[in-house]
Amino acid sequence: MQYSYIKPRSKTIFTKDMQLLFTFFGVTIFMLFSTYSFLIFRDYRFKQDLADISVQKEQLSSSILKMNQQIATIEKQNLMSEKIFTKNSVLKDSINNLFDLIPSRVTLSEAKIMEDGLILYGITPNKDVYNFMLQAPLRSIFHRTYSSFYPVENGWLRFVSTNYIDEEELKDEN
Amino acid sequence: MISRFLEALYTKVFINIVVGNSRTVVYIEACSKDKVLKITNKVFDTVSMNSKMYEFIKLNAKESPFYYISVLDRSSQQGAVPTCSNSEISKYCDTASIKYKCYSKSWAYYTSEYDLEATKHEYRSTGVDFIFSPFVLMANFFKDKINTTLAMFVLLEENYISFSVFDNSKLLYAEYLDMQHKDEEDALMIDSSLDDDEDEMLLGLDNTGGIDLEEIEIDDDNSIDFNDFGDIEDLDSGDTIDEFSEEHDIEEIINKEKDSDISSSGFNEDYQRFSLIQSSLNTFYRDSKYDSKFVETIYIADGVGISSDLKNYLEEEMFLSVYIRKIDIALALCDIAKAEVNAI
Do B116 and A15 touch (CB under 8 A)? Predict the structure, then answer.
């Protein structure tokens, strides 16, 4: 049943007032959602950063642990080197002292330095020179000293001097 | 679907504008579904849209986005024809610039497209949603009688008469009568008569002792054929003679007419309505285009508050059975608008 000559104008709830109201609420809601989205994004980024930092922290912890281990190793190596240096210094001094002990008339051909002993090979013009000038200082240093001689073609004597320091006696002395 | 749902939630405001002789009634109903929430009725002393009316309409229209403004068609070119077929309508009127709509697939009402645009233009400030034909208003008002009887059905407005003859819901004849236009035609005829033959008129007055309305209207094409109703002629001429018996000058006659208009306007209007109804009925009987049947009953929808004179004229001069029903045109217009909105 449509009796009117004309059709009614299309009606909408979006009148000017409503449009203004919807625009206002739309902008407000948009701003709220934007803020909410921004906060969510920041929260997500913060969590991501936190996870990254945790990973970095773990990596750093592990690297610190490795570095500590390396430091410990280096310290050990340093101690060892110091010991070796000391030993070498002691050995050097010992060798210097040994060579200082050797009189000018005696010629050494070989020397074997051991932990608790010293074996010397050399040539002496005679036994007396050896006994008085070399054996006497060696006896003052070592606990046991053994010497053996055998002649060489020019009339000199080749000698082998074996000297030992006893550990038990060293303890007793201390 | 969503708009339907939203529409159901909102209050609907029906703004009905009824233009009268010198005033306009704006009747407003605010409805929620079938419940009437508010009724507002205001009369403006104007026949066109003025600022006060505009403000009043806009104020009420603001109550809801779903407001509908309805007006009655005032085109003098409008009418109704007993067919819905486009080819047959041309027998009754010029179809070149008319818009017509079918009513119950049996008859059609039409109007001038130019006048529709003029109405839209007139209400361009507020807009208009519905323009209804007075014949639709009348057909809805007399729905119970139209379907069952052979009778004349008349809708009386302040300046207009919608005249129709129905035979068991079949339209036989319809005519839209403009009383104001008729008045102007009469006035023009009087003026032209005065200009052309003033002396003759004066002589006529002297000879007869008054103005005979029959003589004034005798050359009008649309005038009533008083030969068929001789008694009316006597009644009319007698009153008029008494009224103007002392007059000797044309200017005085016109002044006298103006004075007497106030006191006897009701009588004059009722007589004019009677004349127009009589004229239309004669056209119906005489015009071969229409399927003439003898009509004994007239149903009048009284939208103006007529006196008993019209009833007496119709009963005594035309021997009709007269039934008068009061109609609130604005309310009837509102009811059609509501039905129209529900039908969309």
Answer: no
Report the mean per-residue pLDDT for chain B.
Answer: 78
Closest in B65, B136, B336 to A11, CB measured: B65
CA-CA distances (angstroms) from residue B105 to A95, A136, B87, B136?
Answer: 141, 157, 15, 13
Looking at the complex, does the CB of residue B131 fall below 8 Å from at least one CB of chain A?
yes
Helices (H), B209-328: 213-217, 230-243, 250-286, 308-317
The per-residue pLDDT for A29 is 96
Q: In chain A, which residues have their Cβ closer than 8 Å to the Cβ of B143?
A: none
The domains of chain B are located at 2-73+334-343
Per the structure block, which two tokens stand in for B95? Answer: 């179809």
Whether B133 and chain A come into contact, CB under 8 Å, resolves to: yes
d(CA B281, CA B5) in angstroms, rounded, equals 50
Q: Which of B6, B73, B127 sits opposite A9 (nearest CB)?
A: B127
Complex confidence, ipTM:
0.74
Residue A96 vs residues A100, B85, B236: alpha-carbon distances, Å: 6, 145, 172
pLDDT tens, A81-101?
Answer: 999 999 888 888 888 888 888
| Residues linked to residue A122 through DSSP beta bridges, in sequence order | A108, A159
Test the B interface: residue of A1, A5, A6 with most B CBs within 10 Å: A5
Inter-chain residue contact A5 with B127, CB threshold 8 Å: no
* Yes or no, beta carbons of B116 and A5 under 8 Å apart: yes
Q: Is B101 on the interface with A (CB under 8 A)?
A: yes
Burial of A119 (0-12, 13-18, 19+ CB in 10 A): middle
CA-to-CA dists, residue B287 to A99, B280, B284, angstroms: 167, 10, 6
Grouping H, G, I as helix, E, B as strand and the rest as coil, residue B291 is: coil
SS3 B84: coil
Cβ-based neighbours of B26, under 8 Å, separated by 6 or more: B15, B16, B17, B18, B40, B41, B42, B43, B44, B53, B56, B57
| Domain range annotation of chain A | 50-101, 105-173
- State how far residue B36 is from chain A, nearest Cα, in angstroms: 20
Which residues of A lie inside 8 Å of B (Cβ-Cβ)?
A: 1-6, 8-9, 11-15, 18
CA distance B70 to chain A (A): 9
> CA of B143: how far to CAs of A42, A126, B153, in Å?
73, 169, 11
Q: Would you place residue B185 in the very low, low, confident or very high pLDDT band (cuts 50, 70, 90)?
A: low
Q: Per CATH, which fold does A105-173 belong to?
A: Gyrase A; domain 2 (3.30.1360)
CATH of domain B2-73+334-343: 3.30.420
